[in-house]
Protein: Potassium-transporting ATPase KdpC subunit
Organism: Rhodococcus maanshanensis
Amino acid sequence: MRFTIGFVKQVWAGLLVLLALTVILGVIYPAAVWGVGRISSGSAEGSPVRDSNGCVVGSRWVGVDPQVESGAPDPFFHNRVTGSVSDEDPFAPGDPATALPTNQGPSSEILATFIAERRTAIAEREGVRPDQVPVDAVTGSGSGIDPHISPAYAEIQVPRVAEVNRLDEQRVRQLVDEHTEGRQLGLLGEERVNVLELNLALGLTAPSCD
């Protein structure tokens, strides 16, 4: 008899623990995570960035070059090259859905050729000497879709952007300064410029949105 009563008590205690953990871990915790994710500025939804019309033009954490028609004036700042796992095109766009960089290592002849081709093309586009093209302009980041560039890469793009947009170069440099982020905690990393937000300040808009 005592064994039966003790067994029943243990069963009820186990069921109560199961019910409590189900409520805490299956309802309260997920609801809390969901709520905290939406308190922040859209990070749970991919940190979307909107233009002046309210249309989503990209994500704050994904670097994608704005689309410019071939032969048309290029009014915007460019991101770092995204790299390509196909290893066929030195300027092939990466896939934001996969976030894959190139699979070529530092000793790769293909990578060395790509870097040389990128340096020549970027120098021609920006009207500078090849040795003035910063390293981050010709190499991809670890994710392949870094949204930031160095202030040095932004600087060599200023004259072109100012000319096409008919702005004073000093005004464009001011916009670059306004969108330059400092080191994390004042110690980690380097100063960087968020290209999408900078291009929004220059008037980048989505082609259309619902």
The helical segments are 2-39, 109-126, 135-138, 151-165, 169-178, 195-201. The radius of gyration is 25 Å. The chain has a mean pLDDT of 80.
